[in-house]
Amino acid sequence: MLQRKHLLSAVLHLPRPLQKGWTCSSGVATPIRHVRATNFFWHALPLLIAFGTLLGCTSVTLATQPQDTSITQPQDTSVMLATQPQGQWYLLNRVDGEVPPEARDPKIDGLSIRVSWSSLEPNDDDFRWQYLDSMFEWAKRYDKLLMLRVMTGPLSPTHGFTDSVEGIPAPWDQRLTREYAKLISALGKRYAGENTLRVVHVSGFWRSAEFHVPRGVAGDQRMVGAFKRRILATAAAFPNQLIALNHSPEPFSEAVVNWTLDKLGSRACIQMNALKASTNTRWIGYSRIRELGQSGCACVGWQFVGPSSNSARFGGSFDEAVNLGRAGNPTYWEVYRKDVRQIAPPP
Question: H/E element holding 236?
Fold first, then answer.
């Protein structure tokens, strides 16, 4: 059972409302002036209905969009909305890695787990839960929350996938789609009811959790459909968790992000995994997350590019990177081992 501090945090850390001057439309942050005409219609609609009733209309029927039943929504929305990840999350340095003592630090709100598909299911339908079970036991013992990534791409098992790209299962391979959906369904049956699990990431198809793909297929329109199927499977298997995308600029990225925000609404988290002191603020990988965070259109987070001790790659101090990240109004940060410290809220 979670201790009192996490129960209180769940109550206090409700999703931020849209910032003044912005609205969301199909996952896109839009200035209010662009939607005033639409807003006028909806504000005037009750008057139109009342006027029609006075004229003797026995009923008023409004055209509505059909409900999408492919995604299961939790019954108690207020509970789900209170589960946005907050604060610092300790990112395990290795896939399938053990938890070091530093992760118990009181400054750490949660643990970010990366587990390989091949270790979870080394053989077809042969699921191995020991590693993840131990992570959930650890989280309960030390009163921490969890976010989960299943790493695929080169860490996928060999299940006879028929189509491949540079030796890795192709994102649109039908067997890959079926096997991944089966894995995520099994994971959901085992862990979706765990109160410690806050976020489930939709991993990419290549060598990381991000959208990166081989250059030759980045423009392939099948990529959008491949991500949609993976997102739907994850959202259905974990109806009480937030679903996170690890954004990176690719030709298909915006279509996937906008569709996800439109489909999942407040269940969607979007993050960028390369924050550093020398981040180019004009780079779309940074500016898109900043826009979403500033507008309140999505739960957003940052993962640092690596430990700040690697000065050549990090390009400056840890605090400089934090200041860049704060511009995106994030709810959470994924931090490497050497940078475990309190990230104070902005003044």
Answer: helix 222-237
Residue pair 267/296 in contact by the 8 Å Cβ criterion: no
How far apart (Å, rounded) are the C-alpha atoms in residues 246 and 344? 24
Token pair for 41: 């219609």
What is d(CA 49, CA 294) in angstroms, rounded to the nearest whole number? 36
Give yes or no for a contact between 332 and 89, defined as CB atoms under 8 angstroms apart: yes
Q: What is the residue whose two structure tokens read 């957003």? A: 300
CB–CB of 150/10 below 8 Å?
no
Give the amino acid at 140: K
Give the CA radius of gyration of the chain.
21
Task: Just give the CATH number of 73-339.
Answer: 3.20.20.80
What residue ranges do the domains of the chain occupy? 22-64, 73-339
Q: How far apart are CA 225 and CA 249, in angstroms?
A: 17
pTM: 0.80
Q: How far is CA 234 from the centre of its chain?
A: 11
Which pLDDT score is estimated for 23? 53
Say how many C-beta atoms besides its own lie within 10 A of residue 74's C-beta. Answer: 14
- H/E segment holding residue 108: strand 108-116
CA 314 to chain centroid, in Å, comes to 24
What pLDDT sits at residue 20? 46
Q: Return the amino acid letter for 123.
A: N
* DSSP structure string for 246-307: EE---TTHHHHHHHHHHHHGGGEEEEEEEE-TT--TTSHHHHHHHHHHHHTSSEEEEEESS-
Pairing mode, strands 197-202 and 332-335: unpaired
Identify any residues that bridge with 28 across adjacent strands, giving them in sequence order.
25
Taking 50 as the pLDDT cut, the residues of the chain under it are 1-22, 31-43, 45-46, 48-69, 74-82
What is the widest separation between alpha-carbon atoms in the chain? 75
